[in-house]
Amino acid sequence: MSLDFEKLTVYGKSFSGFTPDKEALLLEVGSQIKPYLAAVTDEFYQQLATIPETASFLEGRVEGLKKTHRLWMEGLFTGPYDKDFTAQMFKVGDVHVKVKLPVEFMAGAMTLINNRLFTLIVETFGDDKQYCARTIAAVNSVTGFSLLVMQQSYQASSLAEELEKFLKISGMSRTLFTNLALAYRDK
């Protein structure tokens, strides 16, 4: 699939309010937040373990998932938040489709992550209410941006899987399907 990640980056940032000043703030607070991210990841997976529906997705994979999760979380505070970051988030969504992760798990997981990160930010910067509020807004924007891109990927990957199933069941070639789709695009 050919995708313009630069365009998706602009689109995602506009919906999440992920502005250059918020990017700069995340980079600024990163050194203070990063030492706690392993604990945030551990708590996140402890929470997931209490949800019966997540068990089959975690079984035998928690340590590897934690490593990937920690790296992603560090990326939230180190940037850059460019087309390569967007491509990486897109790939995360694609992987979630391949393992048949229900789409609602991504939004639910992001909520759990934000809950813990927001608490950490209050604990770290709570004496300065304005700075704390700005930092929470920045974290909310970067995680919202990440989720939006993952969901875009999830949708594209899900549609591609469904198309492959349809082509296999119907016996229709991809070329014929593409030609038909093009013929009826503007009708």
Automatic annotation (TrEMBL):
<dbReference type="InterPro" id="IPR044398">
    <property type="entry name" value="Globin-sensor_dom"/>
</dbReference>
<dbReference type="Pfam" id="PF11563">
    <property type="entry name" value="Protoglobin"/>
</dbReference>
<feature type="domain" description="Globin-sensor">
    <location>
        <begin position="11"/>
        <end position="155"/>
    </location>
</feature>
<protein>
    <submittedName>
        <fullName>Protoglobin domain-containing protein</fullName>
    </submittedName>
</protein>
<dbReference type="InterPro" id="IPR009050">
    <property type="entry name" value="Globin-like_sf"/>
</dbReference>
<dbReference type="InterPro" id="IPR012292">
    <property type="entry name" value="Globin/Proto"/>
</dbReference>
<dbReference type="InterPro" id="IPR039379">
    <property type="entry name" value="Protoglobin_sensor_dom"/>
</dbReference>
